[in-house]
């Protein structure tokens, strides 16, 4: 049976030597869905929707560059010997944490230039970020990457996964753990949690910080299952960063509550929270 399994074609459109891969299409879909959700929430919060469009114009290219730089830094042994490969992003090699660092950094600078609250901007975008990441992981699925350790077909079947996922996890004669799926599902669950949280009396900034904590917590454990982790000596970089982000986010949340008394997420311009219908 295994000999008859053919992986899904990662190329969606092929015209001569030009190809468009499913990975790029899926990432683009995630960005579009995230933007639409953010614009919808911005309208409810009476926040200028055009700011998100303007921010994306800068954030997307900067995030891609930062995702590449992050990957190259932790694969420097290879790239210092092959410097011409550094710019060849089409050969693979980007990291989501690098993209997030680039996006957050861009948003901080952008909010200062526009004289708006970074945390208000980030809170509105937080659920959108998680759903975009959930969608984006399916690009890894099409590329048969970001998987876990070897496993058996019987184990994958015990998870009640559809055949198309099980078959795609059959790579070079071996079945692998679908860690891309674990992370995608974790992000979908987090998306729902954030939607619930933002209807409560949560303070400004805490929705975004909750996103960082939620994603980092799940990523810490899922990263431990992966076989392609970027390493820092004997440590997995993403696990180290996940711990740092959780500690820093909790610290910021406590500090802001004790010292700054930020307004509620749902508060209007007068600081009042409307009653939920």
From TrEMBL:
One of the GO biological process terms: lipoprotein biosynthetic process
MF terms in GO: phosphatidylglycerol-prolipoprotein diacylglyceryl transferase activity
EC number(s) reported in the record: 2.5.1.145
Topology with respect to the bilayer: Multi-pass membrane protein
Gene that produces this protein: lgt
Name of the molecule in the record: Phosphatidylglycerol--prolipoprotein diacylglyceryl transferase
Organism listed in the record: Listeria fleischmannii
Gene Ontology CC entries for this record: plasma membrane
Location(s), subcellular: Cell membrane
Function noted in UniProt: Catalyzes the transfer of the diacylglyceryl group from phosphatidylglycerol to the sulfhydryl group of the N-terminal cysteine of a prolipoprotein, the first step in the formation of mature lipoproteins.
Binding, a 1,2-diacyl-sn-glycero-3-phospho-(1'-sn-glycerol): 137
């Amino acid at each position: 049976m295994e000999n008859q399994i053919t992986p899904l074609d990662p190329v969606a459109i092929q015209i001569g030597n030009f190809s468009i891969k499913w990975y790029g299409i899926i990432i683009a879909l995630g960005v579009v869905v995230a933007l639409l959700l953010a614009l919808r929430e911005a309208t409810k919060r009476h926040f200028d929707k055009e700011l998100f469009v303007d921010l994306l114009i800068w954030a997307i290219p900067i995030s891609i560059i930062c995702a590449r730089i992050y990957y190259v830094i932790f694969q420097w042994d290879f790239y210092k010997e092959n410097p011409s490969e550094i710019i060849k992003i089409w050969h693979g090699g980007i990291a989501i944490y690098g993209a997030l660092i680039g996006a957050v950094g861009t948003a901080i600078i952008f909010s200062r230039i526009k004289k708006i609250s970074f945390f208000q901007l980030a809170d509105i975008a937080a659920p959108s970020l998680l759903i975009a990441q959930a969608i984006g992981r399916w690009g890894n699925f099409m590329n048969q990457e970001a998987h876990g350790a070897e496993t058996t077909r019987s184990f994958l079947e015990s998870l009640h996964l559809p055949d198309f996922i099980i078959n795609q996890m059959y790579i070079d004669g071996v079945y692998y753990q679908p860690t891309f799926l674990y992370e995608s599902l974790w992000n979908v669950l987090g998306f729902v949690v954030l939607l619930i949280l933002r209807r409560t009396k949560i303070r400004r900034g805490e929705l975004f910080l909750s996103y960082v904590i939620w994603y980092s917590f799940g990523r810490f454990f899922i990263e431990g299952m992966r076989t392609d982790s970027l390493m820092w000596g004997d440590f997995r970089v993403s696990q180290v960063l996940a711990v740092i982000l959780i500690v820093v986010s909790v610290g910021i949340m406590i500090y802001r509550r004790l010292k700054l008394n930020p307004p509620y997420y749902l508060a209007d311009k007068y600081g009042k929270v409307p009653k939920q219908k």
